[in-house]
Amino acid sequence: MTIAAAPGSTAAARVSEATRWGQLLFGIVCMVMIANLQYGWTLFVNPIDQKYHWGRAAIQVAFTIFVLAETWLVPFEGYLIDRFGPKIMVCGSGVLVGVAWIINSMADSLFLLYAGAAIGGIGAGVIYGASVGNALKWFPDRRGLAAGLTAAGFGAGSAVTVIPIANMIQTSGYEAAFLWFGLGQGIVVVLVALLLKAPQAGEVPAPARLAVQQTRRDYGPTEAIRTPVFWVMYAMFVMVGAGGLMAIAQLAPIANDYKIAGIPVSILGLTLPALTFALAIDRVLNGVCRPFFGWVSDHIGRENTMFMAFFVEGVGIYALLYFAANPVLFVILSGLVFFAWGEIYSLFPAICTDIYGRKFATTNYGVLYTAKGTASLLVPLANVLTTASGSWHVVFYVAAVLNIIAAVMALFVLKPMRMRMIGGS
Amino acid sequence: MLGPVLWTSFQHGSAREVVSDPSFEAVWVFSAIGIIFSLVFLLTIGPAFDCGFTE
Fold first, then answer.
1. Residues A243, A291, A166, A61: is their CA dihedral positive or negative?
2. What's the Cα-to-Cα distance from A316 to each of A240, A273, A323, B52, rounded to whole Å?
3. Is A154 an 8 Å CB contact of chain B?
4. Which of A5, A299, A358, A359 is buried most, with the most CB atoms less than 10 Å from its CB?
5. DSSP letters of A274-329?
6. Shortest distance, CA B16 to any CA of chain A (angstroms)
């Protein structure tokens, strides 16, 4: 594999392994710092409602605004990151995520709460895009693993701070938790951002042999979105993302329907009520699966890994439909569903950069990443299906079928298209 | 000290080059269309992210 130097640029000396692993670590730290903006939010909803009585629905609109800004602005932000480098963009975004929670700590109107959510979403989108993009650029030889480790920082990052935040809300009020965690997260991002840099041509090792085929040229975003393979990936991302979201959203109704939600389940010495156990497993497996499947894809190829993961996901969802009445199987199968779902956030960025090159890796993946936003829009349609059919069974069939279709597409549509495209580049 | 440190991270191109780049236009249009479509959709159906939205 060769990596073309940017026109007019001079090749820099190759950096040490410690330098690029350091860059990966800095990206992961930034991801951990923004994880609370998404995963910690739920802790604040009830305290805010208790103080201002705005209603949960009105408060949750703030989260909707956050997700919209965090997802849909990534293409635009990614372009600026690719042009100007991660340092200045992430530094500025560290200020934004800090300011967002400081605004939340003082918000005495819904308008201010929504403004805080929008600012936080913009900042989180930049940090997410820059961290993943930098990992993709520094690790052409281990793209799946690097993207997976970085994405795991976001998926599992809040695990270490959820309890301290919950404790501070209880002892000092939610305003203090917003203020001090907002300040802390923002300051850490700003400081770490000063150490971030994108690799110059020649700084990254070009491995002689790779299990994964990679392009020899760099595609801009306008070129990328004109290629059919991009939209095949987009469709697959939406199908798997939506299928998983639909199934996960139905876990509580299933557990309640079968009356197993509160039944204690013991696995590996841990005993918890079945639904609590299933939801706890989400955090762990949703984080672990990203680097795991990313690493697997570095060795056996992206599409082969996609086929495996999406197929397991589809079968897991289908099996959950039939065995959910058994609390132990409910926990195990929901764990399997979570495990085979989160890897989309490592496999798609990796294959996107394999196909379209490094120069606009953040922008191109940013455009592809909006599939997450599209997928989330399909979740309410699942609720419509549930209401129309009177049960959640139809939703599960749809989710399982979407995953199986995506699995088959990975091998028989995406793989040949990707091989033809890279072969002709 | 912070200014020069940040400024050196600029990789290629100036702000003027960016705004005249068709790629820049494409990405902001893409982002804008996505947000507008999502808002219209959500105002019709209701908030999507209340249940089960995790990544």
1. negative
2. 13, 21, 10, 18
3. yes
4. A358
5. HHHHHHHHHHHHHHHHHHHHHHHHHHH-HHHHHHHHHHHHHHHHHHHHHHTTSHHH
6. 12
Chain B positions in Cβ-Cβ contact with residue A84 (cut-off 8 Å): 9-11
pLDDT digits (tens, 9 = 90+) for A48-64: 999 999 988 888 889 88
How confident is the prediction for chain A on average, in pLDDT? 91
Contact B26 A249 (CB under 8 A): no
Q: Specify the 3-state DSSP secondary structure of A332.
A: helix
Phi/psi of residue A267, nearest 5 degrees: -135, 130
Q: Cα dist. A42→A37, A167, A182, A370, B30 in Å?
A: 9, 14, 15, 23, 30
Residue A202 gets the label, from left (phi > 0), alpha (psi -120 to 50) or beta, of left
Of A385, A348, A64, A130, whose CA–CA distance to A224 is shortest? A348
Mean pLDDT calculated for residue range A232-250 = 89
CB-based contact, A90 to chain B, within 8 Å: no
pTM: predicted TM-score of the whole model, two decimal places: 0.90
Q: Of B7, B22, B48, which is closest to A376 when you measure between CB atoms?
A: B48
> Which positions in chain A touch B39 (Cβ < 8 Å)?
68
Q: Does B6 touch chain A (CB under 8 A)?
A: yes
Question: Quick one: tokens of A425?
Answer: 């580049």
Distance separating alpha carbons of residues B47 and A328, to the nearest angstrom: 33
Residue A4 one-letter amino acid: A
Q: What is the identity of the amino acid at A16? A: S
Question: What are chain A's domains?
Answer: 17-193 (1.20.1250.20), 221-424 (1.20.1250.20)
The predicted pLDDT at position A395 comes to 87
Q: Which two tokens stand for residue A312?
A: 């397991």
Distance from CA of A201 to the nearest CA of B (A): 12
**Token match 């949750």: residue?**
A60
